[in-house]
Specification:
The complex is a heterodimer of chains A (189) and B (284).
Chain A lengths: L4 E6 L4 H9 L8 E6 L6 H11 L3 E4 L10 E4 L5 E4 L5 E4 L11 H12 L3 E5 L8 H9 L3 E5 L8 H8 L5 E3 L1 H14 L1
Parallel strand pairs in A: 1-2, 1-7, 2-4, 3-4, 7-8, 8-9
Antiparallel strand pairs in A: 5-6
Chain B lengths: L1 H27 L8 H14 L5 H10 L3 H9 L10 H15 L5 E6 L5 H12 L6 E7 L2 H9 L8 H9 L10 E4 L2 E4 L1 H4 L2 E5 L11 E6 L8 H14 E9 L10 H4 E5 L4 E4 L6
Helix pairs in contact in B: 1-3
The chains are: A alpha/beta (189), B alpha/beta (284).
Chain lengths: 189, 284
C-alpha cells in the first residue's frame, strides 16, 4: 500500500471536477482516496452512484471504524462527520455542524493531517462556503501537499479562494492538472 | 522549522488531552479514555473555545476549582443528537419482523442505551402501542448525561414536531398522525402521559456500569461511534449479556459489527436495518 493518502473536499459545483479527476485515475491507483462532498439529503445516494459508475476504483460509503483501503474511494455518509482515527481506520460522529456542514471537510482534513502528516495529499474543489480552508492549512503545516482548484476553473470559487487567501494551498491547479499530478505520484510509488 | 513547531504543538495537545481525561476520571469518576480519539479531541477543542480559555490544560484548572464545571464538562464531551424515528427502515423492520416475535413473551423489557433527549424511547413507545404490545412492556431509557435525562423525563420534545418527523414516522410504517401522540402548548410538543408512563429514565454509564436490566430488545444507536474499537467490544459484551436468549440488538445506521468479534456471536437478522439476535445457547 502506498504511504500516501489522498483527501478531497468539495461543495457546490464540485461534482464535475471530481468526476474529471476520479474517472481518469487508473485501476492501479494505489493511495486510498477519501471524499467529503457537501450534498443535500436528496442527492446523497446519487453521488456515490455517479462516482462508482464513472471510475475504475472501488467506491465505499464509510461505516464507523471502517478501514482505509488502497485502490479505493471512501465517501463520508451524509449526516456524519468523518474522522481519520488511525492510518488503518475511520470513525464517524454526529457532533454539531461545522460551517453549516456535516460532514465537514475541516473535520476530515484536520484529523487526516494529524495521522498522515507529510503523507497527505489534500485537494479542495469548488464550493460556496469556507469549510475546508482551515483543515487544508493544518495539512500544509504538517508537511502534506495541499492543492486548491484554480478559482478560474471553479464553478463557485469561494471555497478554493478562501484556502488560497489563508495561505493553505501549496498549489493552485485545474482539474486536469490535478489528475496529472496524482498519476505522477502513483507512478513514483 | 514550521513543521517541527506543528509536531510539537500536536504532541503538547495530545499530552494535555491525556491529562484532562485523567483529571476528569480522578475528579468525577467518569472515564472517557475509551472514546474515539479524533472526535473527542474536536469536542475538547470546542470546549476550550466555549469556556473562553487558551489551552486545553486550562480546562483542568477549571474542572478542579469550579464545582459546576464537573457535570458541564461531562455533558459537553458526550454527544447528544437524536430525533424521532431515526433510521425509519430499522423501525419498519422492528414493527414487521421483531415485535411479532416479542409478542410471545408475557411481558417485555426494552433497553434504550444512550437515550439522549428521549426521542428514541418515545418512538419505541409509539411503535409498541401501535402493535398492541405497550401494555406489558417496560422501556428502560438510560444515558450518561444528566442534563439530557432531565429533559427526556419531561416528555417534551427538544424540537417542535416537523415534516421530517412525520415523514420518518410514515417510513417506519406508521399510519396514524404522529401529532396524535403528543399534546401541544406554547409551540412545545409533549409525549402523551399514557406513553410516557411506560418509560423509566435512569442514569447509566455503558463503559463503567454493569448490565442495566435483562431485556428482550436492546437499542443502542449512534452511541458506539464515539467509542474506540476496544470499548465498542466492551459495550457489545454488556448488551449481549443483558439480552435474553434470542433477544434482539439494534445499532445505528452507519455502525457495524464487522470490526468486532461480535459478528460471530450475534446473528444478523437484517443488515440494512441493523438488527441482530443473540444466539440461543445450543447454537453457540
Amino acid at each position: 500500500m502506498s504511504n500516501f493518502s489522498v483527501f478531497i473536499g468539495g461543495s457546490a459545483g464540485s461534482i464535475a471536477p471530481l468526476i474529471t479527476i476520479l474517472s481518469r485515475l487508473p485501476a492501479n491507483f494505489s493511495p486510498s482516496i477519501t471524499l467529503v462532498i457537501h450534498s443535500n439529503e436528496d442527492s446523497k445516494n446519487a453521488m456515490t452512484e455517479v462516482i462508482a459508475n464513472n471510475c475504475p476504483l472501488t467506491v465505499i460509503e464509510v461505516r464507523d471504524k471502517g478501514q482505509l483501503k488502497s485502490n479505493s474511494i471512501h465517501i463520508a455518509p451524509s449526516g456524519y462527520h468523518l474522522y481519520v482515527e488511525t492510518k488503518q481506520h475511520f470513525s464517524l460522529s454526529t457532533d454539531r455542524k461545522i460551517h453549516f456542514s456535516r460532514p465537514s471537510i475541516d473535520v476530515l482534513f484536520t484529523s487526516a493531517a494529524e495521522v498522515f502528516k507529510e503523507h497527505c495529499i489534500a485537494i479542495l474543489l469548488s464550493g460556496a462556503n469556507e469549510d475546508g480552508a482551515a483543515g487544508l492549512l493544518d495539512i500544509k503545516k504538517h508537511g502534506g501537499l495541499t492543492i486548491a482548484q484554480s478559482p478560474a476553473s471553479a464553478q463557485v470559487d469561494i471555497m478554493p479562494q478562501t484556502a488560497i487567501d489563508k495561505g493553505a494551498a501549496a498549489k493552485v491547479l485545474s482539474p486536469n492538472e490535478i489528475t496529472r499530478l496524482l498519476i505522477q505520484f502513483n507512478d513514483l510509488g | 522549522m514550521d513543521k517541527q513547531d506543528t509536531e510539537l504543538t500536536l504532541k503538547t495537545e495530545n499530552l494535555e488531552i491525556e491529562l484532562l481525561i485523567t483529571a476528569i476520571r480522578e475528579k468525577t469518576g467518569y472515564d472517557l479514555s475509551g472514546y474515539a480519539k479524533a472526535s473527542i479531541k474536536r469536542r475538547i477543542k470546542q470546549l476550550v473555545v466555549d469556556e473562553n480559555v487558551i489551552h486545553i490544560s486550562d480546562l483542568i484548572a477549571k474542572l478542579l476549582h469550579s464545582p459546576q464545571s464537573e457535570s458541564h464538562f461531562i455533558n459537553s464531551l458526550t454527544v447528544n443528537v437524536s430525533e424521532l424515528f431515526r433510521h425509519p427502515l430499522s423501525f419498519l423492520q422492528l414493527r414487521e419482523s421483531v415485535l411479532p416475535y416479542l409478542a410471545s413473551f408475557p411481558r417485555r423489557d426494552v433497553w434504550v442505551a444512550g437515550c439522549s433527549t428521549g426521542e428514541e424511547a418515545y418512538s419505541m413507545a409509539i411503535l409498541l402501542e401501535e402493535v398492541g404490545l405497550l401494555k406489558n412492556t417496560q422501556i428502560h431509557a438510560t444515558d450518561i448525561n444528566t442534563d439530557v435525562l432531565k429533559q427526556a423525563k419531561t416528555g417534551v420534545l427538544s424540537k417542535a414536531l416537523n415534516k421530517g418527523d412525520a415523514a420518518r414516522y410514515q417510513a417506519s410504517g406508521g399510519t396514524a398522525s404522529l401529532s396524535n401522540y403528543f399534546s401541544t402548548a406554547y409551540n412545545k410538543n409533549k409525549l402523551s402521559q399514557f406513553l410516557l408512563d411506560h418509560i423509566s429514565f435512569s442514569h447509566h454509564n455503558i463503559l463503567q456500569d454493569q448490565v442495566f436490566c435483562s431485556a428482550q430488545l436492546v437499542l443502542c444507536r449512534n452511541v458506539m461511534i464515539y467509542f474506540d474499537i476496544e470499548t465498542q467490544c466492551h459495550a457489545l459484551t454488556l448488551f449481549n449479556n443483558s439480552l435474553v436468549q434470542n433477544g434482539y440488538l439494534v445499532i445505528g445506521e452507519k455502525e457495524s459489527l464487522i470490526n468486532t468479534p461480535f459478528s460471530g456471536f450475534l446473528k444478523t437478522i437484517d443488515e440494512p436495518a441493523k438488527i441482530y439476535q443473540r444466539k440461543s445457547l445450543d447454537n453457540v
